Amino acid sequence: xxxxxxxxxxxxxxxLLVQMCTDLHAQQIALREEQRISARERKSxxxxxLAIKAVLIFAPVAxxxxxxxxxxxxxxxxxxxxxxxxxxxGEIAQGTLAGAEKVVPALEDAFSNPHVKQVVLAIDSPGGAxxxxxxxxxxxxLLKKKYPKPVTAIIGNLGASxxxxxxxxxxxxxxxxxxxxxxIGAIIAPWQLDKAIAxxxxxxxxxxxxxxxxxxxxxxxxxxxxxxxAQQLVSHVGTMFVQELAGQRGRRLKREVDYGTGEVWSGExxxxxxxxxxxxxxxxxxxxxxxxxxxxxxxxxxxxxRFASTVGQSMAKALVSISVVNFGSGLR
Length: 332
What we know:
Shape: elongated
Oligomer: single chain
Strand content: 5-15%
Structural class: alpha/beta
Number of helices: 9
Radius of gyration: 38 Å
Largest sheet: 8 strands, mixed
Distance between the termini: 128 Å
Number of strands: 8
């Protein structure tokens, strides 16, 4: 073999080796790319599996949490500017939905929320305990100073006695023309059961540190002193109520009207004598402020609490208890 042939063979061999190395390098690159793609697909598949498992596990838990929150009276929002509505519905007494323990936190939430541009007291109540009403009105006064927002009281079917006292602390009072408003005063209505139990030859012995300590005990006979004390007490509390009315409503009241008779007036009559500022409802207010939707801050009663409350009230009505001074209207 001559030198030319040998040189050609060497060159061909070198070219073949270069081609083999090039092909091997390309195969290595392709293999690495496939491994990368496969790893990415496996990672994506794992993420989707985790996401699906999370949805299947946590979605029911979240739905249950939302249901429990709604059932317990908690609500989400508001997420825009609203009229904050606080409901005072039913008897104003300790442990009720209209009691201070329920109403005051709802007022605090409504006043402190930056999305609430106005606060509305939606009232439908016959009244109740003066101490509970005092706590609510004190809260309204303090919150109005801390968060200066317009406050409107809207009376539905009934805004009487302690319920009307609460309405007095709003900047404006609105009622329907068929609403019942007023019953300004106080009442004590104790049972007189001593004659009833005497029919069964039963009596109660009472040992008290003072002669009027047990003057509201329904099982002991009334005396002239106990009658006088009870009347003096309700007269004093009723007078304070009328004075508070004058302080809150001022010049809007008519001088010739005796507001302390305990009577109720229709919404139209209440406007005429200054107890109410205008005729309307929550719907008319919503129409006046169409750019602000009403948003309820409660208080709301959970289903379990509603059942317990119904049973408790039924039991309470079946029991005889000692009556105390009340701003109730006697209207139910």
